[in-house]
Amino acid sequence: MRAPIGSFDSARPAPEVLDLLVAPVADAVRNWTGSVPADQLVHVDTDPAIADTAVFVAHHGEELIRQSANCVVVAGKRGGETTLAACLVLSTDRVDVNGAVRKHLGARKASFAPQDTATGLTGMEYGGITPIGLPADWPVLVDAAVADTPWVLIGSGLRRGKLIVPGKALATLPNAVVLEGLGI
């Protein structure tokens, strides 16, 4: 199979490589009920040493910078309560934590969640967190630009490997909310 974007040596439908995914991502792919068939979720094998966006696109194709999205975990706080959420924005943007995120979560204060919280609660590696397979009660905030991108390169839950999925599929993930201006 050839990847729909980028230049990768190995690309396969994610349901065929569940053993290359962390448990929560593999479970989400195995039980996929999204807006596109599960075999349109494409896994590409990549070197974890070049997982950071700038190095990654230099190696696999500069055009990927406009087709990649980063998923970060944020914590919104209000009155002693903390709400965790995932935010997905194009890799050329940064998450508007103190504007769009804080407002959407109804939080007094919002910030990036500590690394150990993000990895511990998702079961994913830092630098590989993906919106597929997150805890069921977390909001997944998706920037409209991500949802409008035909094919989006995202994490796979591990620093080794990425997923390429239709942007419209990300907009229909459980608890997904598409927000204009999430990425700035």
Automatic annotation (TrEMBL):
**Domain of life here?**
Bacteria
UniProt cross-references to CDD domains, sorted A to Z? PA2301 (cd04939)
Q: Which GO terms describe its molecular function?
A: aminoacyl-tRNA deacylase activity
Q: What is this protein called?
A: YbaK/aminoacyl-tRNA synthetase-associated domain-containing protein
Entries under InterPro entries matching the protein: YbaK/aa-tRNA-synt-asso_dom_sf (IPR036754), YbaK/aa-tRNA-synth-assoc-dom (IPR007214)
Lineage, top ranks: Bacteria, Bacillati, Actinomycetota, Actinomycetes, Kitasatosporales
Please list the residue ranges annotated as the YbaK/aminoacyl-tRNA synthetase-associated domain.
53-171
